[in-house]
Amino acid sequence: EVRWLSRGKILSRLFALRKEVKSFFQQQNNLKFQKLLSDDEWVAKLAYLADIFSLLSDLNISLQGQLDVFALRGKMDAFQRKILLWQTRLAEDDLQMFSNFAEYMREKDVNRQVINIVQQHLRSLTESFGRYYPKKEDPRHGNMWIIDPFAANIEDSNLSMHEKENLIDLSCDDRLKVIFQSSISRPRFWLSVKSEYPLLSEKAMKILIQFSTTYLCEKTFSSVTAIKTRYRSRLEIKTTLRLAVTSLEPKIHKLISNKQKQISH
Length: 265
Fold this sequence. Notes:
By secondary structure, this protein is mostly helical. It has three domains: about 5-135, no CATH class; about 145-210, no CATH class; about 215-225 and about 235-245, no CATH class. Helices cover about 65% and strands about 0% of the residues. It contains 15 helices and no strands. Helix 2 runs antiparallel to helix 3, helix 5 (about 70-90) runs antiparallel to helix 7 and helix 13 packs across helix 14 (about 240-245). It is flat and about 80 Å long.
């Protein structure tokens, strides 16, 4: 059984080789699949599925890596808005966003009812995304100050009065603004102000350290496979695995300097 998100390439390949596959089924005298590949409406649906699963696969790939919850929701919102745009374009008979589907619809005189089926599927996708990513659970609500403490609307922030006062002090600090606008990451910035603004730093880090995807789990499983081969099946990998998946860079020179040198007697 192949995972659905892996079927984008499979469907694209099947659509590209549909004539060869049809010829193969003819040689095998397989009437069932031969009939399907001779049905223009069925092949049009195949073309659309190849396109939409390819787009979903691209989305899935873009979510890989150490994204925070803000970046994840931004990407998901963008894809949902694209779906709405595609629905509008389909209503105007504009199919250019689905290349295989558009090409096949130009070549064949296919029943336009297929477009209605595609629109229905896109509406279903929108509803599914809405269930998995409900707006009421959007981590950005009240937390935009974490993304940019120097431009956020303080009144809309999910902070106590004392924390809002601290945020005002922070947002007016030009020294910190220069640091924030440099290439420093959000987590590193909030850790750097922990001594001055411990309440804001702690609250920001509680949200930033949340796992937005299963990427770290998948990376860990891949590391286990690479480390614990059949020749090292009894190896204790706890410490090795931690080094393999951590994003921290050890300060080797500092670690060495803290160790006592072994002087020959």
